[in-house]
Design brief:
heterodimer; A: three-stranded mixed beta sheet; 11 strands; B: eight-stranded mixed beta sheet; three-stranded antiparallel beta sheet; elongated; ATP binding (chain B); Aspartyl/glutamyl-tRNA(Asn/Gln) amidotransferase subunit B (chain B); nucleotide-binding (chain B); ATP-binding (chain B); ligase (chain B)
């Protein structure tokens, strides 16, 4: 019963091939047996899962099952989950048992899905490799010497290793799409405001967005149906009707206009990745799409702009971790200042502290105009680039990452090199646009992702474009050896 | 050379919303510590603010009442600093685009003239919690009930030139916000508090360095704190010293200000627009709708009291300053159908009792209807003014209507001519010496001498004889004895 897609599992449950409890037990057993290799879970919620699975079976017996009822899902450990440790990958919250559910969790619970556990992540979602996690790095099931990507690396590793059929992730600069690319998954970062951020521990509020990570576009559509929608508890969520994202997956692509930004195919791009992405585009042409080169001239500015805006917001968002009310507090503080300094000094890891310092500096009196304000202006330029191009084409395509999954430790010594990992992904967050990564081939045994970018609230179109590709190709069905 | 004092004030008025500015928790005062702090107020990870529209409405009411420009687009900013009773590590406030722009208010000076004081701006922000240092040995208690209570910070121009002007301004703002019903004005509970920016200079010279004295919570303390601070500054300057720009604290017990922190130690608040809240956008229609529903403002009410009730300018000023008092007075005036008598009683006997018992008019044990009923009995001669004071005393202590108390205590005025004549005759018979003096006196001196006989009649009658009747009859009888 394992190794199925969400849609496949839903069918199995509907047809009574197995019960929700059997399904949950099978996944829990596999996590127990296998996860020491991948370290993809921070917390396995066995008791909760079995309880939810039993409830799902009961509601199915009573004829109240929805498509999601009884489907096991893993949640990134950034979504507050009532009664469960929610750590955000940080020592700071290692002892934090959330007293409430994030809106995304509440919606999955209401839909009847089963929470398998909380997945590993870069500390406070700051990282592109999962190596900044307090709980140790998660490993890429395609090659455990390599990173699964980040920050939603635990979610990606869990799905790729078959420890969960699907998982939630969050994406501030590529944290859904990059690990999806590294682990041969389908990941969707929705339009900013499409999915509620309430209960999702904030990294950079104006960039953070939750989304699905799955084996197929169809599964991602099923999950987005649960996750999307206006939330009165999140003022930045958008009041806009939520379509059934599974309804138009099969719409034909004839006449689809694809734009290829020349800035995404520069000389520095790994040639194998460039070739695979171009091959995928050729496949789309075969499906009836037309292709043209477009330009996003401010792409190069997205890394510096992002690394001002995101740390600035983070420096403020993470101020609440002060040892006063919850979370880590240093031993025997001598006075208030000592408590603040040691709590935060000991509770946060290196990368988090680096970004807090960068952000604090960028917002300081005398530097605000030169850094934060300038970065916001660049952000508007980047957005205008996209708006212009997306008035000419339906979707933009390119690589998700400049390289396939790198080795653990390979980029930890040079933060800037790590930051460049996100060159193709973070401009979308700056613009607030939706984007996907889908498998489009293998390079030296490691997966490569195709990024598809759409207009605001064009998730339905993106899922359609991704699904048609997955109907025509089988890259997404490849599994790591031995699975 | 003459010293001139320059004063600007920042008033923090807690807005009278039932729930907090960014959460649904109650704002009621005096609950057990931390029972009115929800997940948002505690700044649990993942929580987000949702703006309370009532706070906006109240801020716009204030703005329209002082003829201010209303910000069509106002933006919340984060003011970042660490303090244990500031749960998020930042205060959400409005720096760059406040809801209320430039306006003004007129104050009455002692010489009867008016002076216009400029209001620079008024902005919305959240209150912090409270640190409790006394009750916990070597520790600090944090009560977050107040955290997130909406505040309107009203910033004046440095237009005031004396402590008296400053107090007149504060009283005027207090009167305005309480009349608008947007603040309960309770200074002891901290609903209305004041920071005083004070500097001195030789008349005509440039502004001197100023100090800011924080959180003064009574009109009297404002006056004392300013006077003390002015004297301190002049002493320093006359000794050839310099004023340090700093924040000071007023110690009411010692009646002095002391340094809290200097400018050098001041925080860099790293203001930036709060990414969790959207800009507040309002239009003329919204503002006009609020303008139309503004209650009668103190200045208008004062003018009406003078015109409608023929009150003196002073009485009208006192009675229009505080809405609960104004409303109380008008009810008494309507019930008793005698405005002048009502004004005298409200400002006299009632105010005296309220002051003695440190009670707000809203909590007066004697209602406006009760007092109005009592004044009716004065007017129809059921009781004299002096007896009415006894009735009032009983009302204050034991409750009950004027009629019930008069009946129960047998205080009804004696108006029966036969009964009064009997007492008058008795007094004349028992005071032969004074009668002889009366008869012997020059006719124009006799008027004064009648007071003695009146007093005797009142003594005998227990104060219940109708003074008018007694006076007439006594004069008639005594004059009849004269040759």
């Amino acid at each position: 019963m394992l190794n199925k897609t969400l849609a496949g599992l839903a069918k199995g449950l509907q047809q009574g091939e197995f019960s929700s409890v059997e399904l949950a037990q099978a996944y829990l057993q596999r996590i127990k047996n296998e996860d020491s290799k991948y370290n993809s879970f921070i917390t396995v919620t066995e008791e909760l899962a079995l309880q939810q699975a039993a409830a799902a079976d009961a509601s199915r017996a009573a004829g109240n099952a929805s498509i999601m009822t009884g489907l096991p899902i893993a949640h990134k450990d950034i979504f507050c989950t009532q009664g469960v440790r929610t750590s955000a990958g940080s020592k700071m919250l290692d002892n934090f048992i959330s007293p409430y559910d994030a809106t995304v969790i509440r919606k999955f619970n209401a839909a009847g899905s089963v929470t398998l556990g909380k997945t590993n992540m870069d500390e406070f979602a700051m990282g592109s490799s999962n190596e900044s996690s307090f709980y140790g790095p998660s490993r890429n099931p395609w090659n455990t010497q390599h990173v699964p990507g980040g920050s939603s690396g635990g979610s990606a590793a869990a799905i790729a290793a078959g420890l969960a059929p699907a998982a939630t992730g969050t994406d501030t600069g590529g944290s859904i799409r990059q690990p999806a690319a590294f682990c041969n998954l389908t990941g969707l970062k929705p339009t900013y405001g499409r999915v509620s951020r309430y209960g999702m521990i904030a990294y950079a509020s104006s960039l953070d967005q939750g989304g699905p990570m799955a084996q197929t576009a169809e599964d991602a559509a099923m999950m987005l149906n649960v996750m999307a929608g206006m939330d009165p508890l999140d003022s930045t969520s958008v009041e806009r009707a939520v379509p059934d994202y599974t309804a138009n997956l099969d719409a034909p692509l004839a006449g689809l206009k694809i734009g290829l930004p020349k800035e995404f195919f520069s000389a520095s791009l790994n040639p194998e990745i460039a070739a695979l992405v171009r091959a995928a585009v050729t496949e789309y042409e075969a499906l009836g799409a037309t292709v043209k080169e477009v330009s996003l001239p401010n792409t190069a500015l997205s890394v510096p702009a992002y690394y001002i805006v995101a740390p600035a917001e983070a420096s403020s968002n993470l101020s609440r971790f002060d040892g006063v009310r919850y979370g880590y507090r240093c031993e025997d503080p001598t006075d208030l200042e000592d408590m603040y300094k040691r709590t935060r000094g000991e509770g946060f890891g290196t990368e988090v502290k680096r970004r807090i310092m960068v952000g604090t500096y960028a917002l300081s009196e005398g530097f605000y105009d030169a850094y934060y304000k300038k970065a916001q202006q660049i952000r508007r330029l980047i957005q205008q680039d996209f708006v212009r191009v997306l008035s000419e084409v339906d979707v933009i395509m390119g690589p998700t990452t400049p390289t396939p999954a790198f080795k653990l430790g390979e980029k930890t010594s040079d933060p800037v090199e790590m930051y460049m990992e996100d060159i193709f992904t973070l401009s979308l967050n700056l613009a607030g646009l939706p984007g996907m990564s889908i498998p489009c081939g293998m390079s030296n045994g490691l997966p490569v992702g195709l990024q598809i970018i759409g207009n605001y609230f064009a998730e339905e179109k993106l899922l359609n474009v991704a699904h048609k590709f997955q109907q025509a190709t089988d890259w997404h069905t490849l599994k790591p050896a031995g699975l | 050379m003459e010293w001139e004092t320059v004063i600007g004030l920042e008033i923090h008025a807690q807005l009278a919303t039932t729930t907090k500015i960014f959460s649904g928790a109650s704002t009621a005062y005096g609950a057990e510590p931390n029972t009115q702090a929800c997940a948002v107020d505690l700044a649990l990870p993942g929580t987000l603010p949702v703006f309370n529209e009532n706070a906006l409405r109240m801020a716009v009411m204030f703005g329209t009442a002082i003829d201010a420009e209303i910000g069509k687009v106002s933006v919340f900013d984060r003011k970042n600093y660490f303090y244990p009773d500031l749960p998020k590590g930042y205060q959400t406030s409005q720096l760059f685009y406040p809801i209320v722009g430039e306006g003004h208010i007129d104050i009455e000076l002692e010489d009867g003239s008016t002076k216009r004081i400029g209001v620079t701006r008024a902005h919305l922000e959240e209150d912090a919690g409270k640190s409790l240092h006394e009750e916990f040995a070597s520790m600090t208690g944090i009560d977050l009930n107040r955290a997130g209570t909406p505040l309107l910070e009203i910033v004046s121009e440095p237009d005031m030139r004396s402590a008296e002007e400053a107090v007149a301004y504060v009283k005027k703002i207090h009167s305005l916000v309480t009349n608008l019903g947007i603040c309960d004005g309770n200074m002891a509970e901290g609903s209305f508090r004041c920071d005083c920016n004070v500097s001195v200079r030789y008349k005509g010279e440039a502004l001197g360095n100023r100090t800011e004295t924080k959180n003064i919570n009574s009109f009297r303390f404002i006056e004392k704190a300013i006077k003390g601070e002015v004297a301190r500054q002049i002493d320093i300057l006359e000794d050839g010293g310099r004023i340090t720009q700093e924040t000071r604290l007023y110690d009411a017990d010692k009646d002095e200000t002391r340094s809290m922190r200097s400018k050098e130690e001041a925080n860099d608040y790293r203001y930036f627009p709060c990414p969790d809240l959207l800009p507040i956008v309002i239009d003329d229609e919204y503002i006009d709708a609020i303008r139309k529903t503004l209650p009668e403002l103190p200045d208008t009410r004062r003018a009406r009291f003078i015109n409608t009730y023929q009150l003196s300018s002073y009485d009208a000023g006192v009675l229009s300053a505080y809405k609960p008092l104004s409303d109380f007075f008008e009810t008494v005036a309507t019930t008793s159908a005698d405005a002048k008598l009502s004004a005298n009683w409200v400002m006299g006997e009632l105010s005296k009792h309220l002051n003695q018992h440190d009670t707000d008019i809203k909590d007066s044990p004697v209602s406006a209807e009760q007092l109005g009923g009592l004044l009716q009995r004065i007017k129809d001669n059921t009781v004299s003014g002096n007896i009415a004071k006894k009735v009032f005393e009983a009302m204050w202590k034991e409750g009950g209507s004027a009629d019930e108390i008069i009946e129960a205590k047998g205080l009804k005025q004696v108006t029966d001519t036969g009964a009064i004549e009997k007492i008058v005759d008795e007094v004349i018979a028992n005071n032969q010496k004074q009668v002889d003096q009366y008869v012997a006196a020059e006719p124009d001196k006799r008027g004064k001498m009648i007071g003695f006989f009146m007093g005797q009649v009142m003594k005998v009658s227990g104060g219940k004889a109708n003074p008018g009747q007694v006076q007439g009859m006594m004069k008639q009888k005594l004059d009849a004895l004269c040759p």
